[in-house]
Amino acid sequence: MKEANEQSNIVNLSQRLDPATGRGGDLLNAVRNIAARRLQQYIGNMFEHVDDALFDLAEKAENNAAQMHYFDGMREVRKRRPVIERSFLTLVSRELNDFVSGQRSPGQNNPSMPAAGSIELSLVADNELEESLAITSLIGKNETRLARDLFAVNQRLSVICGGTRIEDATNPIGPALLAQAFRQSMRELSADMRVKLIIYKLFDRYVMASLDELYQETNAELMRAGVLPQLRHELLRNPSGSATAAAGGASVQNEMTTPLAVDDSEASAELLQTLRTLFGARRAHPTVPLSAMTQGQLPTANELIGALSVLQSQAAALQSTTMPIADSSVIAITEQVLHLKEQLLSQLGSLRGQRPGQIATIDEDTIDLVGMLFEFILEDRNLPPQMQVLLARLQIPYLKAAILDRKLFAHRQHPARRLLDGLADAAKSWSEESDRDGRLHDMIKAIVDRLLQEFDDDMSIFDRLSAELQQFQEASRRRAELAEQRVAESTRGREKLEQARRRAAREILNRIGDHVLPPLVHGVLSRAWANYMVLTILRKGEESTEFREAVRFVDAFIASTKPVRTPEAKRDLRQLLPGIERALRKGLANVAFQDADIERLLGQLHTYYRQQLGDAVPAAEQPQTLEGGTPAPLPIPESIQPIAESMADLEDESANAEPEAAAIPPEVRDELERINALKPGTWLEFSSQDEHFERAKLSWISPMSGRYLFVNRRGLKVADYSPYELATVMADGRARILASNALFDRAMDAIVDRLSHEEVRTSDTE
Questions:
Q1: Same domain for 154 and 62?
Q2: Same domain, 755 and 727
Q3: Which residues form a coiled coil (predicted)?
């Protein structure tokens, strides 16, 4: 009877509860109470440490200004702490209340909070970008760290919510929603971004780092209530099977009769089935007659691992690949596979005193597949040649890993596969120019060396090395993103300036039209006043009252140069002059003209207008002239030289216009279609006439000009092109797009393709 009662209390996925009422509602309320109690404790503990952290930073500040930022931050935090805490807890409580009451679908994010990870390098403010990066990094790190407990919470909440799927990003007590709630509450704090980033680090340390306690208590409470008491995280979230692989020879022996395993993905199953078929056809037409080998007993998996370990030790000692393909030349698949087999068979013969005639079919397929994988690496133009050679040294460790754990080729998340994909992704961005200090090269080389030296049969080494690589990449990415943002903002500033220059030039040119202006008036409009209009656009905008007044001045100034032949015309000119003088004084003062220069210009204009009106001009007020009678030029202050271009330059804005669509060569048109589909984050390789190669990422596409900005892995600018310019460069073979999908996926597709063609050629010869 007792056993029956216990069984009746177990809730599984087939017993869906109503989340709003009854037992489901009670359980959700219990979760809400646990979360509210613990989060209040965590957030309070965090704020207890903010003062000390900011005070320490203030003491170590590099200058007085930075020190004042931290002291101001301390005062602001003390004042706003209650509001921030209350706001955070209210937001979390609202999420939980909506979740419990069923007012919001668990699969839908709250629109009041921004979605986690939705960051692109677009033209957002520096502060907002830095804040977004900090939040995204914080979420990603903790979702990975808490994966086991968070997964269990997700599954159990799904049961008591009627079976609705709940993921990390939609869990009301998950890192994503908690971090976004805290970010929302931090809007109550008017502090320097440096101070905010420090608080986010403390939030990570004292709140996020404590979430494992919250999840463990939540899971324990739900397990006591009978919700999925037997749930096992490994069965659902860890398909790599590395734990069984680490068991060594016994587990390997048990898998000797098992074909390459498949995961729950139809694509993976289809791919592996295709490979089996192609390898089967290949064995039906062997490239080397078996009579060439001496006969003997099939080697066991342990013998293969032992022989490979010897070869691996030799490779580690030589610090170079044992394969004779360290250059970038292409070697036929059959020759590559034969060499690997011969080397392995020879070593097996040395270990057992008798050379085996054959090896098991499954081992042969594994050896062939790994050989093809690394031949692909040596041919993959997405990798720089130096990186190809480095990664090729991993062939023997990866062959051992594939024999130890035959799931390697089946699961995208297999630790060994993730490590190789991660190394290739890091290597893709490498160039000598972007890695002058050699940090990336040395990091990749160190991982390769450690695998060669340390990998025996413990598959956990791949997880450890992946974590180290990810940490290195994350630190590099953070540094690069700040530099990248500065480059994007600088480019945006230059484009805004150029756009303002062209707008000012067009306004002035359109109003001048066919008028022939006196040199003095033309000089004022094309230099000083054009500069004032540019600054007005940048500061106030094209729709502002100030800009409209600046345009009206141009009309009035041009009108003041018309011949004065009647009393009415003289009257009109006299009425214009006071407004012209007031506008000039105001405009020139705004573009850093000194008072003496303004008075000199106005003096020249007074003389000009007296002549226009027919008034006598005293000899003392006659303008200074150069040889030929030209008025002496008005000096331009140094402070405005960078944006005071001549009107002749501004008139020439169409000189470099792109050709009409009909005039674009077909090969350039084809590249334009590819370029229009490019997304930020895509890597390209650029080459110059001196055979210098540089790899750069598309960082930003300007919404104003449509130009493409490229940066290297350090976030420094490499080039920027209009779409037409980039298409021309690509059509000339001076740039090419690098693949964005994972190395392993590309390799598998290439291997299937080559084996398929090999099968066709074999069929054709029969």
A1: yes
A2: no
A3: 465-507
Would you state the structure tokens that stand for residue 518, as one six-digit string?
């006196």
260: nearest Cα among 135, 408, 82: 408
pLDDT tens by residue, 597-609: 888 888 888 888 8
Q: Specify whether 717 is located in the same domain as 622.
A: no
Q: What is the mean pLDDT of residues 77-104?
A: 86
Shared domain check, 348 and 208: no
Q: What is the token pair recorded at 21?
A: 């009422």
Give SS3 for 708.
Answer: strand
What pLDDT, on a 0 to 100 scale, did the predictor assign at position 468?
93
Mean pLDDT of 148-176: 87
Q: What are phi and psi of 473, to 5 degrees?
A: -65, -40
Strands 735-737 and 717-721: unpaired
Is there a domain that residue 294 lies in? no
**Ramachandran area for residue 513 (φ above 0: left; ψ -120 to 50: alpha; else beta):** left
Domain count, the chain: 4
Closest CA to 317 of 398, 403, 424, 393: 393
Residue 676 lies inside a defined structural domain of this protein: yes
What's the domain range around 151?
A: 9-237
Q: Which of 591, 624, 651 is the last residue of a domain?
A: 651
- C-alpha 62: how far from chain center: 31
Statement to judge: residues 420 and 284 lie in one domain = yes
What is the DSSP code (8-state) at residue 527? I
- The tokens describing 290, both together, are 């078996």
| Cα–Cα nearest to 377, from 686, 739, 761 | 739
> Which of 472, 469, 326, 455 lies closest to 390 in space, CA to CA?
326
With respect to residue 108, please indicate whether it lies within any of the assigned structural domains.
Answer: yes
Question: Does a structural domain hold residue 717?
Answer: yes
Question: How many CB atoms within 10 Å of residue 534?
Answer: 27
pLDDT of residue 658: 67
